[in-house]
Amino acid sequence: MKKEKIISVILTVGLAVGLLGGCSSSSGKGDIPEQSSAAESVQTEASAEKTQNSNSGERKKLVLWTWAPGQFNKVQEAFLASHPDADWQFEEVVVSVEDYLTKLQQGYASGGNMPDILMAEMGWRGSAFALDIWENLEAEPYDFDRSVLLDSTISSITNAEDQVIGIENALNPAFMMYKKDLAREYLGTDDKEELESMFQTYDDYIEWGAKVYEESGGNVVLFPGLQDVSNMMMQQQRNINNVDENGDVNVTGKVEKVFETVEKLREANACGNLAQYSMEWSNSFADGSVIFFPGASWSVTYWVEPYDPEGVDNWGMFTPAGGGFGWGGTCYGIYKNSDMKEEAWDFISWILLTPEGAKYMKEDSGFFLPVKAFYDDPDYTKGTRPNFGEQEINTFMMEEIAPDVPEASLSIYDNLVSDSVNMVVQMMAADSGMSAEDAMEEFKADLQAKIPDVTIK
């Protein structure tokens, strides 16, 4: 069976490698860098070429804008190999996750070129779903039946009209990862159940963080940085919508709790001073300076294995204080004015809704699809990875964490709230005198400047 050629147009627009699993949010504001203008120029040429090739009998191009080029190469190849009559070629145009939302907004507003397949990351999905650019996948000709998916995913793929407009590419259960050697040395055990008993509350992190710092002479900390904890706490509260029934941004309760905890962790020296996703942060996976790393299913293949290749059987997972949570997530949809709708749906539905696609997604990316029927097969959730030794991490993720993950409640301000929280937490890390009260004032001022006409409570 002849495999069709897959074309990738790689445009470097500040791709954030750490966001491959969709674990952060885009600000979605301001001007797009000059590189994005170059991307639009190339995309315009690509669209014109697509039309010209179609008219001349050459293969059409199915265009995807993505911040993770090549992430699903094997799945794409498998799809085309199983569909020998496909009369199109796949084309990727790389747009950084930070610029993606703005590029969608500008492209549609200007009547410019748009991709056939749309992506939306969880952090700014509420804003993306508010754009009138998506096909209703429950309408003809798609006729998608939402009941085939796990109930917990529905709220994150529906718009304000309760229409399914995207298909989730994975469940993203999140948990606590730990280094076994450091846990034995400084915590007295590397046993999963014992660690879960020791760390029932965030106060336990604070207490043990102080002990670890003192015992190690300041050479070892519990967490890489304050952002790791603040992001975990925000995700554990993602079922609380950022907007109340009056349309006001009402986040004081959950954000205040985050800043208070961050202040205590900082005072206890429980966290290092590493910015999340920085090179120093990445290096800490192997350098023996950090015990705990909040992580999600995608963290195994995108962080642990690449950055600690020698750490075979030196990693473990357990349920963190506050419970398991969802972290990140990307969905795929179809642009409503695309002339490749049928082809786009054939591709999306095959890779995300069929057993064949599920096989490649699991083996190549470590992603588990949220399709109910797949979990009838007990082997689907089984599996180990070298760094985690004999721990059945897939079973742990899907049976102990995933069932209790809070559903995502989306709003158009989610990315702005997250950006402001991250900015203030970085300020707290840099300024040891900044209190939780100071942080709250700074947060409100920063968020209000972004949305001056909205009441912030």
Automatic annotation (TrEMBL):
InterPro entries associated with the record: Bact_solute-bd_prot1 (IPR050490), SBP (IPR006059)
Species of the source: Eisenbergiella tayi
Composition-biased stretches (Polar residues): 34-55
Protein name: Extracellular solute-binding protein
Region (Disordered): 27-55
Pfam families linked to this entry: SBP_bac_8 (PF13416)
